[in-house]
Design a protein that fits this description.
The chain is of the alpha/beta class. It folds into 2 domains: about 130 residues, Glycogen Phosphorylase B (Rossmann fold), CATH 3.40.50; about 180 residues, Rossmann fold (3-Layer(aba) Sandwich). About 35% of the residues lie in helices and about 15% in strands. The strands form 2 sheets. It has a 7-stranded parallel beta sheet with strand order 8-7-6-9-10-11-12, sandwiched between helices. A 5-stranded parallel beta sheet has the order 3-2-1-4-5, sandwiched between helices. The longest helix is centred in the middle third of the chain and has 14 residues. The termini are far apart.
């Protein structure tokens, strides 16, 4: 039996954009045993999608030992690598030392590929590129996250407890992994005030990074989804009509569960990092730069959100699937 190992680090969004790779490997090598070496809280999406057979924790497995000279892997880890017929490792750079050590233990093929794409190449296409000649059928580059059954039950209970209606709910996620990706609080406050004024049911999605911003944003009657396990959060987002977020892992997650997503982009290029879904709209004010989001007019966000809620928005898919609008920023 073939043994395939995929090594992938990064945050939530990094794992979601890797799902097409795992799906493509599963479809092309249905009889192979596929293992993923990645942080379990983020990598569980791959398990739920049934694209992998085994999830390996990098800390428990001792991945860092492959960067020492000489490598000091445990006997069990070394024995596992010796069974691999293909290793695909996405690394921050070419990592020549890692390549040499993996090839020392692995009798099969070792592919190291940069984790970050070049300009104007979408991340999903970039991650698929080293496998192009090895795949047996065309690949859908759009990530898909299935909903776990237990998480769906939990989401339904959350919905009922919060008194949310079956339709029309908007989830707002005002956070991101980098401060340069954040839209100013005044913009969020205006959009949320508009939603309250128009009696649009809403909820706030937050993690540790957003809790300082949360009290300034959420109306007292809105429920808060705080620090949820990712499968449960995915199930909640799947029940929403629209999710509004920054360039973040949550935006990628919302798009991957099939929910209409409005993503506010600033310094990063959505043609490279945009959530890949036909039901995603990216607002990317121009001119682009480190302070781009400071110039995004709240009126543009409100107008776009209203059209998405009313199903009057005119999607114009880009070459990376999502619709990308480039409104002029305010001075």
């Amino acid at each position: 039996m073939q043994q395939i190992l995929v090594i992938r680090g990064g945050a939530i969004g990094d794992m979601i954009v890797t799902l097409p790779v795992l799906r493509a490997l599963r479809h092309s090598f249905p009889e192979a045993s596929i293992a993923l070496l990645s942080a379990p809280p983020r990598a569980m999406f791959a398990q739920h999608a049934q694209t992998i057979d085994r999830l390996l924790d990098p800390d428990h497995w001792g991945l860092y030992r492959l960067f020492s000279q000489p490598p000091t892997l445990s006997e069990a880890s070394a024995a596992f690598l010796n069974t691999c017929t293909l290793i695909v490792a996405y690394t921050p750079d070419t990592a020549a030392l890692l390549q040499a050590h993996l090839q020392h233990y692995c009798p099969g093929e070792v592919l190291l590929w940069p984790a970050h794409p070049p300009a104007q190449i979408h991340i999903t296409e970039h991650l698929l590129e080293p496998l192009r000649g090895r795949l047996r059928q065309p690949v859908d580059p759009c990530p898909q996250v299935p909903i776990d059954a237990a998480a769906a039950v939990s989401a339904a209970q959350f919905w009922q407890t919060a008194g949310l209606p079956d339709q029309g709910v908007v989830a707002f996620h005002p956070g991101s992994g980098g401060t340069s990706k954040l839209w100013p609080m005044t913009g969020w406050q205006q959009v949320i005030a508009w939603a309250v004024q128009h009696q649009i049911p809403g909820m706030l999605v937050s993690g540790p990074a957003e809790q300082e911003r949360e009290p300034l944003l959420v109306p007292p009657t809105w429920p808060r989804a705080r620090n949820l396990p990712l499968p449960h959060l995915a199930a909640l987002l799947a029940r929403c009509q629209v999710v509004v977020s920054h360039d973040s892992g949550i935006a990628h997650l919302a798009a991957a569960v099939g929910t209409t997503t409005l993503a506010l982009f600033g310094p990063t290029n959505p043609y490279t990092w945009g959530p890949r879904s036909a039901r995603t709209c990216v607002l990317w004010p121009q001119p682009a730069g480190p302070l781009t989001l400071r110039s995004l007019p709240p009126a543009v966000v409100i107008r776009t959100l209203a059209a998405l809620l009313e199903n009057t928005f005119s999607y114009t898919p880009s070459r990376v699937t999502c619709t990308i609008l480039q409104p002029a920023g305010e001075a």
